[in-house]
Write a structure and sequence with these properties.
The protein has 115 residues and is mostly beta strands. It has no helices and eleven strands.
C-alpha cells in the first residue's frame, strides 16, 4: 500500500522559513509528478507547487519567489522550502503524487505563521 508522509511543519514567525518534506513508501514505481497543496480553515484546498519528473515546476502566484519545490532523483521524495513566510500561508499542507492517472495523498502537516 502506498503511503505519503509529510514532515517539517510547525510554528514560525512571519518572515521565517520552514522546509517541508514528503516521503513515499510502499511503491514500486516513480511518480510522474509530485506536489504540495494547502488548505486553510474555511477555505478550499489549493495547489501550491508541482514538480514533474523532468524537473520542471509550477507555482501558485501567491508563493512565487518565496517557495521552492524540489525532489530526489527517484521521484519518491519531495521537499518544499518556504521562505519569507506570511500569516496567510497558515494552513495544513498536503503532499501528493501522481502516477498512471491516480492521485495519492499524505495526511497533511500543519504550518502556522504568527504575525
Amino acid at each position: 500500500q502506498v503511503h505519503l508522509v509529510e514532515s517539517g511543519g510547525g510554528l514560525v514567525q512571519a518572515g521565517g522559513s520552514l522546509r517541508l518534506s514528503c516521503a513515499a513508501s510502499g511503491i514500486f514505481f516513480s511518480f510522474n509528478a509530485m506536489g504540495w497543496h494547502r488548505q486553510a480553515p474555511g477555505k478550499q484546498r489549493e495547489l501550491v507547487a508541482t514538480i514533474f519528473r523532468g524537473g520542471s515546476a509550477n507555482y501558485a502566484d501567491s508563493v512565487k519567489g518565496r517557495f521552492t519545490i524540489s525532489r530526489d532523483g527517484k521521484m519518491n521524495t519531495v521537499h518544499l522550502q518556504m521562505n519569507s513566510l506570511k500569516p496567510e500561508d497558515t494552513a495544513v499542507y498536503y503532499c501528493n503524487g501522481v502516477y498512471s492517472s491516480r492521485d495519492y495523498w499524505g495526511q497533511g502537516t500543519q504550518v502556522t505563521v504568527s504575525s
